[in-house]
Amino acid sequence: MVTTETAVMLAFLITNLARILAYLPQIIAIARDDGRAKTVSAATWTLFCVSNLCSALYAGCVTGDRAMLVAFAANTVCCAVIVGLLCWKRRMSRPVLGSHRG
User: Fold this and answer.
1) CATH number of the domain encompassing residue 28
2) Of 26, 29, 51, 61, which has the most beta carbons under 10 Å away?
3) Which is nearest to 17 in space by CA: 5, 26, 9?
């Protein structure tokens, strides 16, 4: 028989795996965007990144729960990829200072 604790842990792992996969469409959309990906909030994704990092640290340092640590660390990496892509896109689409046309 499956205990409540086991069922909750399985739900946590499954939903976090799904969440990690759900980042992919956002990453692909930003990568394909020809502009600055203005419809994506860098502030929101930075907050998600920091929140996941704090959760990973909490899981590792306070609870000692490796499964939670890995899940939150993976979410942190995915959020960091999104933030990094946004920064790169926005930096690449800025006009170069001192360059004049015509």
Assistant:
1) 1.20.1280
2) 26
3) 9
Render pLDDT for 1-57 as a digit per residue (tens, 0 to 9). 889 999 999 999 999 999 999 999 999 999 999 999 999 999 999 999 999 999 999
Residue 14 tokens read as 């499954």
Q: Do the domain assignments include residue 99?
A: no
DSSP structure string for 31-96: HH-SS--TTS-HHHHHHHHHHHHHHHHHIIIII--HHHHHHHHHHHHHHHHHHHHHHHHHHHTSPP
Structural domain count, the chain = 1
pTM of the model: 0.84
Find the mean pLDDT for residues 48-72. 96
